[in-house]
Amino acid sequence: MLENLLTHSAFEILTLSDRAAQALAENPWEAAGYTLLALGGTGAFLSLLGMALIYVERKVAAHFQCRLGPMRVGWHGMLQSIADALKLLQKEDIIPEKADKLLFFLAPVFSIIATVLALIIIPMSPSLQVVDLNIGVIFISAVGGFGVLGILLAGWSSNNKWSLLGAMRAGAQFISYEISVTLSLLVITLLAGSLQLSEIVQSQQDGWWIWRGHIVGVVAFFVFIISSTAELNRPPFDLPEAESELTGGFHTEYSGLRFSFFFLAEFINMFIASALGATLFFGGWMPFHIGGFETFNSIMDLIPPGLWFAGKTAFIVFLMMWVRWTFPRLRVDQLMRLEWKFLLPVGFINLFAAATIVLTKLYFFPGQ
Amino acid sequence: MGYIDTKKSTKAKVTTVGNTPINVVIAPRSPSGADSESLLTTIFKSVKSLFVGMKVTIGYLVRPSTVVTQQYPENRETLKMFDRFRGQLRLIKDENNYMNCNGCNFCEIACPNGSIVITDQRNPVNEKLELERFLWRLDSCTFCNACLQACPHDALEWSDGFEAAVYDRRLLVYTLNDYAGPPVKAINRAKKKEDRVEELLATMEPRKQYGGPVPLAGRKMPGVPALETENTKDNASPKHK
Amino acid sequence: MAVKISTLEERISVPAEGDNPLNTQEYFINMGPQHPATHGVLRLMLKLDGETVREVIPVLGYIHRGIEKIGEHQTYRQFVHLTDRCDYLSAMMNNWAVSLMVEKAMQTQLNDRIEYIRTIMAELERIQSHMLWWGVLGMDLGAFTPFLYGFRDREMITDIFEETIGCRLTMNYIQPGGLMDDIHPNFVKRVKDVIAYAKPKIDEYEELLSGNVIIQERLRNVGTITAEQATSLGVTGPVLRASGVALDLRRVAPYGAYGQVDFEVAVGSVGDCWDRYWVRVEEIRQSFRIIEQLIDNIPAGKTMLSKPAKKIILPEGSHYAQLETARGILGIYAVSDGKSENPVRIHMRSPNYHNVWSVDAMTRNARIGDLVANISSLDIVVPDIDR
Q: Which of C55, C125, C159, C201 has the most neighbouring CB atoms within 10 Å?
C-alpha cells in the first residue's frame, strides 16, 4: 500500500476513495487502510492546518500593526497555537443556565462537520484527494449551507439577545452571498464544462481560467473572493461576530472546547474557500501552463503539483488576511446593498458574458 | 453617495460667536450640485481608496524595522527609564546611609490620600524630634509628586523601579527608612560641635523594609498568616536602582 | 416648563402587543456596563426593533468615585491630582482648569514661560487624545490596525510627558501658580522630533481611514445632530463644532498663550459622524501648528510662582473658570468660605457628561452599527461622566 502511494505517477488522478474501491476486490484490509488513512489524515490535517493558520494569521496581523506577535513559545512563537489549544481544552465547560442544552451542544458540531465535508473533496494534488465527486461544485455549496446552520443554532440556543442578533445577521448574510458565490462558480463550470473538481483542474492544462477566461474570469474571481469572504464571516464582513457591536455575536456564550470548534471551523473554512478559489481560477495543483509552449510547460512541471496548490492557496489566504487587517466593517444594510445591488447584477451579467464566450469560443486556447 | 475628497476643505471667516471674527476651516463633504461626479468616477475613486489603504498596511508588513513593540522582560538589561520617572518613593541617603529626613511631616500633610504615615520619636541624646518610621503605601499612592514638592529637606526621591507587583497586598506597605534615628544634618551638627557623637549614633535602630502585618484600612485580618519579613527581598525588590 | 420624570423601570416596560399577529415586538437590551463599544463602564439601555435602535437610555454611575465630594476635603493643590482621574486623556487640561480657577480667584498674574509651557503641553495632550480616539474609532468600526497605529504615535507624545513630568497619563503637572517642574532640557528637541515624525503619519491616517470608502459610508449622514439640537443639549467641543457652531474657547475667550498664536477652528457643516471625525483629525493638524509657533520662543522665567508651603485660601464667594479640553468645555466651579483651605463645594462641568446625552438624539431609528459609530465619534471618556 505504501509502495503504491509512493510510486504513483505525478499527474494521474487517483483519489483515496478510488484506491479503496480498487483494493476492495483484492485485499479488503488494504481498502480499510486507505479509509483509515483518509479519516485520520483529514482529522490530523484539520487540526494541524487550523493551528498553523491561526499562527500565521497572528503573525501577519502583528506585522501589519508594527508588532511582533507571538514570540515566546518555541522559535518565534511557533508552538503558540498548541499552547492555546491545550489551554482551551482545559477550560471550564460553561453552558448558560437557560440555554437550549441539546442545540447548544450540537451547534459547534454542525459547524465542524460542514467543514470536514467540504475539506474532503478539495484536490490538493493528483493523488491527494479523499473523494472526487462528479457534482463537486454543488456539493461544496450544499455543505457550506450546513455550516451556517451551526451558527444559527448557536445564536438561538445561547438564549442571549446579542447571540441571536449575530445569528440572524449570519443567516441573512449567508443566504445573500451564497448566490454570488454560486454565480461565480457557475462561470467556471461553464468554461470547464464540468462540475467535477478534478476535471475542472485538468481543463486548465492549457492555462488557468483566470487568464484564459480573461475579463469574465477576473470578474468572477473578484466576485468569488468578496462573497466568499462574506460567507466566511471574516472582516470586513464579520457582522455576525462584530465584537465591538455584538460582543462576539453568535459565540458570545461559548467557551473552551466548543468555542475552539467554531474557531477552528472558521479558519479551515478560510482554507477551503482559498483552496476552492485556487482550484477554480488558478488551476489548483496544475502548474502554470501556456497552451502550445511545450518546453515552458515541461519546465513548469518540474515543480511538484502539491507545491503549486499550496502556493496558490497561500496567496489567496494572504489576500484575505491583508483585507481583514486593513478594512473596517460594513454596516448591516450596506452589506445587503453591496450584495443585492452590486455583486448580484455583476454576477448575472458575468454569467451571461461567460455563456457568450463559451458559445463563441472567445476564451484563450478553446480548441484543445 | 459620492466619494469625499479629504483634502478639499474650505476656509472661511465667521463671527457667529462673540464679536471677534474666527478663522474656520470647514469639513469636506461629498461633491454635490455642479461638482457632482458620475457614478463611474465615484466607483473608481472608491475602489482606488481601498487599494491605497492596502498599500499602507503592506508597507509595514514588508518592513520589519517598523516594529515598535519591545520584548519585555528580555530587554530588562537595556531598558532605561527617564530620569524623572516616578517609580517608587524612597528616602535619599548619603554614602554612610544617613538620611536627610527628620520626620517633619510636611509630606504627610501634603499627601492627598494618606499614603504616607510618619511616626516620630524624641531622641534621648539631643532631645530633638526625629523619624521613627516612614510608612509609604504604594497600594494607595497616586504618584502625584506632592510629597516631593512639599519636602523642605530634599529627603525624598523617586526610584526608577517599576516592577512593583507582589503577591501579597501587605508587601505594598513599605517602611522607607533603614533606621530610626537622627538625620544627617543632626549627625553633622553633632560632629561639628563634637558633642556626644558616638552616643547619638548609638541611638540608631535598624528598620526593615516590611514591618510585619499591617492592618489594611484600619482593620485586622483574621486568618491571614503573619508576613514573612526575612525573605521578602525576592518579592518586591526593584530591579532598577 | 414641566419636566416629566420617569424611572428606568417605567421607561423599559415593554407595551403589550397589539392584536395584529404581524406586529413585531420591541425589546430592550443592555449595552454595557461591560461592552467593548462603550469605552469603559457606560451602560446604555437600547430599545430595539430588530436591528433598528428606537431609543437609547444612558445609565450612568458605574464608575462614580465622588471626586467632587472628596474635593471638599482637600486643598486646591491636592484636588488637582484628582482631576487627572476624570478625563484621563486630557489630564493636563483638567489640571489647568483648576489652576485657572484658583489663579482667577487669587488674581495671580503668570509669566509668559508658564503660559507657553502650559499651552504646548495642553496641545500635546490634545493631539495624543485625538490620536487615541482615531485608533479607537477604527477599532469600533471593525478595523483593528488603526488602533495600533494610533497608539504607536501616541506613545511618542507620552514619552515627552514622561521625560519632563515622570508620568504618562495622570500627570498632575499644571498646578495653581505655575508648573510642578521645569521642562526637561531635551523637551524642545523631542517635541520637534515628534512633530517631524507625526505630521506624515497624519497623512497616512487619511490614506488608511479617512479616504477609505467604507469608513466614509459608515460615517456620512450617520448620527446627525443640528446646531440647534447640539446647543440645546449643551454639547461642546468637537461634537458641537461639527454641527457648525464655531465655539472654541481657545479662540472665543483666549487663555494661556492662545491669544498669541494663529490657528483655525475646524468646523463641520452637517453635524454627522463624518464631520465629527474630520474635525478631530483637523484639530490634530491645527494643534501641531500651535506648537510649532510656540516651541521656539519659550521665554525664560520662573515656573512656579507660589510656594508649596503657602496655604491657598480663596476669597469668600463662588469662583468659576472654564477652558477647552480635548472633548469640550470643562468648567470648574468652587465655593469658598474665605477661611478654610478646602472649598465648601466644588463642581465640575464636564464635557463628556453633557455630550453623552446627545447619543439618543443621534441614534434614533438608526442601526446598532450606527450607534457604535456615534458613541465612538462622541469620544466619550466614562470616568469623566461619572466623576
A: C125
- Is the backbone of residue C31 left (phi > 0), alpha (psi -120 to 50) or beta? beta
Residues of A in contact with B60 (CB under 8 A): 63-66
Distance CA C314, CA C95 (A): 17
Q: Residue C160: which residues within 8 A CB-CB, separation 6 or more? A: C124, C187, C190, C191, C194
**From B50, B54, B64, residue closest to A63, measured CB to CB:** B64
The position carrying cell 530633638 is B128
As a dihedral over the C-alpha atoms of residue C51, residue C55, residue C60, residue C63, rounded to 10 degrees, the angle is 10
CB contact (8 A) between residue B145 and residue C166:
yes
Instruction: Look at A327 and C142 and tell me if their CB atoms are within 8 Å.
Output: yes
CB–CB of C212 and A66 under 8 A?
A: no
Cis peptide upstream of residue C176 (ω within 30 degrees of 0): no
- DSSP code per residue over A190-234: HHHT-S-HHHHHHTTTTS-HHHHTHHHHHHHHHHHHHHHHHHTT-
Within 8 A by CB and 6+ apart from C204, the residues are B56, C149
Give residue B241's pLDDT.
Answer: 34
Cα separation, A8 vs B232, in Å, equals 68
- CA–CA distance, A133 with A123 (Å, rounded to integer): 11
Q: What is the H or E stretch that residue B158 is in? A: strand B156-159
Q: Which residues of chain A have pLDDT under 50?
A: 368
- DSSP labels for C217-258? HHHTTSS---HHHHHHHT--THHHHHTT----HHHHS--TTG
Q: Are B144 and B150 in contact (CB under 8 A)?
A: no
* Phi and psi torsions of C12, nearest 5°: -95, 5
Q: What is the pTM assigned to this prediction?
A: 0.86
Q: Domains, chain B, ranges and CATH?
A: 88-218 (3.30.70.3270)
Distance CA B22, CA C253 (A): 11
pLDDT digits (tens, 9 = 90+) for C11-32: 777 666 666 667 777 788 888 7
Confidence of residue B233 (pLDDT cuts 50, 70, 90): very low
* DSSP code string of A159-175: T-HHHHHHHHHHHHHHH
C-alpha cell at B228: 514573612
Q: Are C313 and C306 in contact (CB under 8 A)?
A: no
Residue of A nearest to B54 (CA): A326
Are B94 and B137 in contact by the 8 Å Cβ rule? The answer is no
pLDDT of residue B217: 43
Sign of dihedral through CA atoms C358, C363, C368, C372? negative
Residues in chain C: 387
Residues sharing a CB contact under 8 Å with residue B201, sequence separation 6 or more, in sequence order = B181, B187
Chain A interface includes B19 (CB < 8 A): no
Domains (range + CATH), chain C: 67-386 (1.10.645.10)
The minimal CB distance from A71 to the residues B60, B61, B71 is found for: B71
Write the pLDDT tens digit of every residue in C300-321: 888 888 777 778 888 888 999 9
Is the omega angle on the peptide bond into residue B73 within 30 degrees of 0, that is, cis?
Answer: yes
Q: 3-state class of C136 per DSSP?
A: helix
Dihedral sign for Cα C188, C194, C197, C198, please.
negative
Nearest-CB residue to C140 (from A67, A244, A331): A244
Among residues A69, C212, A55, the alpha carbon closest in space to that of B56 is found at C212
Higher pLDDT, C14 or C322: C322
Q: What is the ipTM of this complex?
A: 0.81
- Give how far Cα A321 sits from Cα of A10, A338, C317, Å: 32, 21, 63
Residue with cell 499550496: A310
- Is the four-CA dihedral B73, B78, B82, B88 of positive or negative sign? positive
